[in-house]
Amino acid sequence: MENSHWPKWAVESIEVVPPNPEWIDAGRAEVQELMQRLSPFGVKEVEHVGSTSIRDLPAKPIIDVMAKIPSFDEVEEVAGKLAEDDWHYVPVELDNRPWRRFFIKVENDRRVAHLHLMLEGEPRWDQQRLFRDQLNGDPSLREEYAELKKSLANQFPDDREAYSEGKAAFIERVLGEGK
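^ that's the sequence the OP posted. Answer follows.
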């Protein structure tokens, strides 16, 4: 696919870097900022999830947060509000995940955060939390996931979909163990 018309951040390579203890504080700050920005839209919960929320885990240096919203009816207004802080809305037809509305925060032409906006009652909310908590509580799972992520990043440096698909079986196993 020819990507010359895409911004740099939309096609940047996958880079898994060593764990950074500052990610937890950065996640906390992002959560607080998003709570303020999104509360007028009925958002009452925002959480730091993903690999940067897991202690001692190598990760792409991108803070993942999720927020619960009562409806997607105002997503254009949300996008306008978040654009003030360099958040870019990825239309659902490009994201291919109809269960969420996806935003990417960009600084200096690089992704620094992802926002997964989900409807109240979306099962993936609890799955994201469970996965984070399982890995935070189990060093052997954390190490296994770290090795998998590094291997996939080397195998698929320019294919985010293949990178994500490569993690699916591991994630499903961890979620199954956590029930």
